[in-house]
Amino acid sequence: MTRHAHANDQAAAYQPPATAAADRPVRVRNLVRAFGDKRVLDIVSLDIAPGEFVALIGKSGSGKSTFLRALADLDDDVQGSGSIQVPENRAVLFQDSRLLPWENALNNVTLGLRATDAGQRGRRVLNDVGLAGREHAWPNALSGGEQQRVALARSLVRSPQLLLADEPFGALDALTRIKIHDLMFKLVEVHRPTVLLVTHDVDEALVLADRVLVMDQGRLIVDKRISSPHPRHKSSDTFDTLRNELLAALGVAVSV
Ligand SMILES: Nc1ncnc2c1ncn2[C@@H]1O[C@H](COP(=O)(O)OP(=O)(O)OP(=O)(O)O)[C@@H](O)[C@H]1O
């Protein structure tokens, strides 16, 4: 099955503009970041090819969010050195949806979008995330999963070349997570941004990513390419083997 064969009809109906094609790689060289005298990123170098879906896992406090925030250029209270090259058109998705409570779903998606067809694009992307007909809903009338879909739509409406996602599904219940994984995969197939997904969830990384990185004490200690085809079944032997390998890298003993 081709990668595009998984896109559902709604998602496939949306053809992102040509600029959506991620044509600039991510290139990080010898990145060091410290808060005060605490070194959080310790000489990290990484290349991510355009369109690649990379998951970053690691223990709490290992430096994952600091790395993502460095790529998003979000921290100004941090010291450091090294170089970062990322596409200019990038979007960031956080664990909380960060929707404006006084704006409806559509306005949250299109806020700041200065295109003459902003409304039309907003509706189309809301349709892609399965929220057709909910354009005028207020955030507090949407479930957690729906709010996160609006946030996803807000990220995708600008056709980002790079999507930086920091535990975006961490607060969702298990069933909603499974559904949104499926949706995320289909949307990425259509929109084709380069993705860096920070997650605590090894299974989430293995279900979605082309490549899984493990960070430990500010260093990348594993860089694993996942070649098994999608959809990946958690019950398969390959999945089990990969999961155990990553859990071992995280220092988690696996009992069989
Ligand atoms: N603004 C800050 N000021 C001081 N220390 C910070 C700041 N941000 C992060 N740190 C420290 O840097 C270290 C790495 O934090 P970071 O959030 O990057 O880890 P993480 O791997 O994303 O953790 P988690 O999985 O728990 O979110 C932690 O020890 C944290 O306390």
From TrEMBL:
PROSITE patterns, A to Z: ABC_TRANSPORTER_1, ABC_TRANSPORTER_2
Record keywords: ATP-binding, Cell membrane, Hydrolase, Membrane, Nucleotide-binding, Translocase, Transport
Positions of the ABC transporter domain: 26-242
GO MF term (any one): ATP hydrolysis activity
Keyword Iron-sulfur among record annotations: no
Enzyme class, UniProt record, top EC level: hydrolase
InterPro entries registered for this protein in UniProt: AAA+_ATPase (IPR003593), ABC_transporter-like_ATP-bd (IPR003439), ABC_transporter-like_CS (IPR017871), ABC_transporter_ATP-bind (IPR050166), P-loop_NTPase (IPR027417)
E.C. number: 3.6.3.-
Protein family per UniProt: Belongs to the ABC transporter superfamily.
Protein name as catalogued: Sulfonate transport system ATP-binding protein
Top-level taxonomy: Bacteria, Pseudomonadati, Pseudomonadota, Betaproteobacteria, Burkholderiales
